[in-house]
Design goal:
mainly alpha
């Protein structure tokens, strides 16, 4: 039986979630001069999950994540798209491609930018920086009706974590929206 990725993501502890997200950014961080070793990732994930202050080792990682998110927002901006607009724009609606190779390149660039914004915002929230909570909310809103939208599930969990809202809170949506609006 093929594992249901969305159900797996819902079951991960926050420590597992932060660790997996950090691993996704290992190469991009290394390219920017910040190495995320497995030991560092595990230690930061454990600290973050316990809501313990993450130590100075997290600062360069946060700075790299902020740069990656901002770069990705700028990539979408070159097509006059905000992140929210990009999520709602299909590749058929995108301009600037004539060949199949152009289409694939554009789709890859757009998809990478969207993924980096969503995952980077989630990991930042886990590391105590919720400045991009609006992107988490937009990701969640975009995919919330698709029970297999992993990005929406990660965004929702990160938003709840950052806001200190229990995942089973019956007023979680209202509380998360209030939290996002205050930032």
């Amino acid at each position: 039986m093929i594992p249901n990725r969305a159900e797996n993501v819902k079951k991960w502890t926050y420590e597992e979630l932060w660790l997996i997200l950090m691993r996704q950014f290992k190469r991009l961080s290394f390219e920017r001069g910040v190495e995320i070793t497995d030991v560092t990732a595990r230690a930061l994930a454990a600290q973050a999950a316990q809501r313990a202050p993450v130590d100075a080792i997290a600062d360069p990682i946060r700075q790299v994540l902020i740069a990656i998110v901002e770069e990705s927002v700028n990539v979408l901006g070159q097509w006059q798209l905000t992140y929210e607009q990009a999520l709602q724009t299909t590749m058929n609606e995108m301009h600037g491609w004539e060949t199949t190779a152009d289409f694939l390149s554009l789709a890859n660039e757009k998809g990478n930018a969207e993924l980096r914004i969503a995952a980077g915002s989630a990991l930042l929230a886990g590391l105590g920086d919720a400045r991009y909570a609006r992107y988490l909310w937009q990701t969640y809103q975009h995919g919330r009706h698709d029970p297999e939208d992993v990005d929406a599930i990660v965004a929702w969990r990160a938003l709840l974590f950052a806001a200190g809202i229990a995942e089973d809170d019956p007023q979680a949506i209202e509380k998360a929206e209030n939290f996002r609006q205050k930032l």
